[in-house]
Amino acid sequence: MTRRSLSSGSGIAVAVWLLFLLACVWLVSRASFTADLSAFLPRSPTQEQQLLVDQLKSGVASRLILIGIEGGDPAARLRTSRELAARLRTDAQFLHIANGEMQGMERDRQILLDKRYLLSPAVNPERFSVEGLRAGINDSLDLLASSAGLFSKALLPRDPTGEFMQLLEAMGNSAQPQSDDGVWVARDGQRALLLARTRAEGADIDGQATAVAAIRSAFQAVEAPGTRLALTGPGPFSVNARATIKDDVTRLSGIGMAIIVGLLLLVYRSPTALMLGLLPVLSGALAGVAAVSLGFGVVHGITLGFGTALIGEAVDYSIYLFMQSEQADAAAGDPRRHWIATYWPTIRIGVLTSVFGFASLLFSGFPGLAQLGLYAISGLLTAALVTRFVLPHLLPAKLRVRDVSEPGRRLQAWVARAGGLRGGVWLLFAAACALLAVKHDSLWNRELAALSPVPLADQQLDMNMRADLGAPDVRYLVVVTAPSEEAALVASERAAEALEKLQAAGGIDGFESPARYLPSQASQRQRLASLPADAELRQRFAAATAGLPLRADRFEPFFAEVAHARSQPPLTRQDLAGSSLAEGVDALMMESGGRWTALLPLRASAANQHLIDAAQVRAALTAGKPPAAGSKLVFVDIKGETDRLYAGYLQEAILLSLAGLGAILLLLLLATRSLRRVFRIVAPLAVAVAVVIAGLVLAGQQLTILHLVGMLLVVAVGSNYALFFDQGSFDQGSFDQGSFDQGHFDQGSVNGGIAPRTLASLLLATTTTVAGFGILAFSSVPVLSAIGATVGPGAILALVFSAILARAT
Known about the structure:
Largest sheet: 5 strands, antiparallel
Helix content: 55-70%
């Protein structure tokens, strides 16, 4: 046989394939890759859902890195904290570094002192009445006896009412971290704490990785003996997640590929056959990544992990070609033509069942799921088409693989006896269904966190450090939308009034607001109007200080600064440039599409287990002053919202999968024109899926959306096995190409059972599938582990049950 005998168009087929590969390589080289879980949020979000995406990518909490210094003695931790903060403050990657020290806050202190009458919420007409002045002066005198007395004494002539000190306290955070010698420490005193705000957005994983590396490098330069570094926050989590996914994908796919290559070499005994057999796999992998990149603009690391495992199924097609074409008799002439005519229609139906099953995922509003569907369809179709139209033209005329007829005959003998196990299989199926029915309420995990690659220990550490620092949490937010910056600030102030009452009642532990750093113009004008004229102020001040040990002539700076303040224009965002106040405004205020959004993150107290009663917050906001016309006030529990979104996507995915199953059944019915045969093909797949899922439930696992993908893969892989057992692929063939092209299989007679080499090819194909997918069960990434734990045992059971249930009815 010569290659030319296969087709006169062989050169065209190979040329088209090479051009296709070049195009895929070019697309893959330009593709963007991510490990950000925001890729698993809606691609067409509502306004509320867009807020979730924005917060995950660039919100107030996404830029924060929480730094802990553990180990060593307390003095070593405090010294390391100071030296680390000093180094990081010189790094332009960080907008702000805080550890409780006052260094680097000169600009902040100057603004707070100069603009205190514009910034202080305590400034009102009552504050500058005789009674208000006396109360403020008495508070300042009391402060002289505290640890801040020296500082307060220097300020007293300029600020006898203590506005500056009140602002310092308010700006510091209502939930001040515990301090030791001026440095923040954990509540148990065993960890020094720092807070870093990065210039890079949370979605910029490369930028976050650079920032994390800078922190680690700075720590190595200053670390005291026995101390160690702990980093948490969205940035470190995303960096670690990407590294974990990359490491798992590289390591496990390498192990899987090594097993597959070893198996193929062991069976083929031909390096040439091995290399040629991997060409469809390579083509499918490149096509999958290229298709996802074109369709979504970014390729998620989970998709890559899924794709590398898909080689376990993609290599099946070349296995069928090499091993099944060897069993053609001499009368068949060209063995590869015989394979195309005899076996390809069965494989083609198997490929189409996979495509129909995964096509349903393309309609999901869950981009991560749609990516997996597109990758699977593109990869499997490409691998199958390359095997059918390209690979036969590349095979050397004299290429032969190892004769596996003898192992195949032993398999034949087992299959002949396997029918006796049918009753046990149906009992096992009934038991699995009964278990799933009993556990149906707790079967699915409906929280998006189930997909998170962040270990539970790291999540707990992050929660503890946030509680110690009083850092804003991205979970609970009051969101203000308004037509202008001023309207957003006004609405934020009205919301703050309601939240202060809720805080006083213990409903929340505190909150942040952009109006704390930049009050609305209206509020600033009201505060300036509260300042009395110079003569009136002097008269009230004299009355307020009567009987106090104060000399009136020492307070001329106070009168001068109040007079100056009365003539000041309201403070603007530009006036705050270069300060942490500006950073606070930028973190909590954003403009998009001509509308402004203000964020008020809420802090939950440890006493309430870091949870906030959403109904209580909404009631407090409703009872407060309503926002002005054109403004909107919404409370959002981001975790609750993402969980609801994920639960909705899970329900959607289940329905779409059922639709895909319906499409598969319709395809099989059209191809076979027999309900009985459709049942024979589908039955072993249904039993395999039910038994695997029941096993996972017995092992204590809740199912996620990725287990659903695994079920689809079991159906996709197992359909090939079930089709071969049903149709036979017998020694002389059980159906012909022409009858298939007309829409049905030939109902030919059995010619001695399924051929030995075909059985051997199915066993080898199953083994490679298990090697490709099953190895993922050992991944530390939950979504990859879910696929591996489902597909690995599912593929084996699909083959075994197909053999046992073959022609059972």
